Amino acid sequence: MGRDEEPVDPMEIDGQQKLQVDAPTAVPEGFNADYLRVYYGKLFPYGDFFKWLCYGNDGKHPGCDQSYVGRREFSFTLENDIYLRFQSFDSAAELESSIKEKCPFKIDIGPVYSVDPAKRHAYAQSGNNVFVPVERELIFDIDISDYDDVRYCCSGADVCLNCWPLMTIAIKILDTSLRDDFGFNHILWVYSGRRGVHCWVCDSRARKLSNEQRSAVADYFRVYKGGENALKKVSLPGPVLHPFLARSYTDVLENFFEDKLLRSQQLFASEERCQKILDLIPDENVASELHDKWQGNRRSSISKEDVNEARWKQLKTTLQSGKHKAQGLRRCVEEIIFSYTYPRLDMEVSKHMNHLLKAPFCIHPKTGRVCVPIDPNNCEDFDPTVVPTLSQLLGELNAAGFQTDSENSWEKTSLEKSIRFFRTSFLQPLLKACKDDLENAYNAKLQQSKNSLNW
């Protein structure tokens, strides 16, 4: 809600009063501190959220590191862009009361440091520079605005169902590779609330990677290179594609480009758009041959075939015909498809341990949408335009009647599906793996001390 709009009366949720409404739609659209207070008071899943970030260290097992979660950085952005970094919490209750009190418009999660980030100054004064990040999920950040040169339906932060599938593609390709090529299992995909997706790889191995190792993983996925002005941003050198790229191409990219993107983005519908694709062909003679063909058949509307599909077919036939084999143009078709569809990562976010990333279940202040998890197995069904919004959730709470028991209020709202998915598909398997890791590490330590005693 803009600052110049009418303020909405705060909802009284602690007392007996509540907004008297008949239907879930009765809460005015928007985002403000009063709405947010109700959300943090009734719906934010503190318990599950905190359990995730403890990674099993909140139990009674003698191998637990009780200081672990208290060394994690949380960052709050308050109203009017007041920025609080290096917050830390020892318990879910402490986190909950701080969030309820400060009502952050945004919550970011940072790394686990060597010491409690809130006490970093005390350590700095001691002269030892011991305040360093020691653990952090491997994270990926993908924004639809980075695809602005290949989407024609929207630009900037806007997104619609014609361009959102580019995010679906990114999820499919990265998720498959992280599991199959790197052997990671505990991967959380989250909608950023506006224009993109975030990925949290939470396996113990992933959290312990050094910055150099993170860079190596990020570079493994890097195909899209070249700045704003580089015409050709994808080069696929070598006689054959790397197996990961070949699999991405045949399993996902090629079909998506030909079956959806060509038509949904109207890639060949204008002279300018055609030229953009012709610029990716290194042989000028071939490019102008195609250009002349397209100029010639522009006026003949006899063909029932879609112009985008017809021109793409001509381009493929021309580039993959025998006479161009020697010029190495066959690879050019793949390069065009990669240019238009392959995931574009914010590389810096993945390479460094100390990057902050927005927490799941935050509310995006510009859209009012909740940052909900996305199921990678059904990501093509995810629709960002129907993600629960703050005002929708409040309306649903109103319709259900504000119960005094706020423990599971979320069950009465459209947030239920997301919290359940987070809990059963991501958190439970993760905590089971954490428990096994703790047990194994503890036993190995015992064995080690036994061996040294015997020695």
UniProtKB/TrEMBL annotation:
Listed GO biological process terms: DNA replication, synthesis of primer
Entry GO CC: alpha DNA polymerase:primase complex
Assigned EC number: 2.7.7.-
SUPFAM superfamilies membership: Prim-pol domain
Keyword vocabulary terms for this entry: DNA replication, DNA-directed RNA polymerase, Metal-binding, Nucleotidyltransferase, Primosome, Transcription, Transferase, Zinc
Cofactor(s) demanded: Mn(2+); Mg(2+)
GO function term, MF aspect, one: metal ion binding
One Pfam entry name: DNA_primase_S
Family label: Belongs to the eukaryotic-type primase small subunit family.
Name of the protein this chain belongs to: DNA primase
Organism annotation: Urochloa decumbens
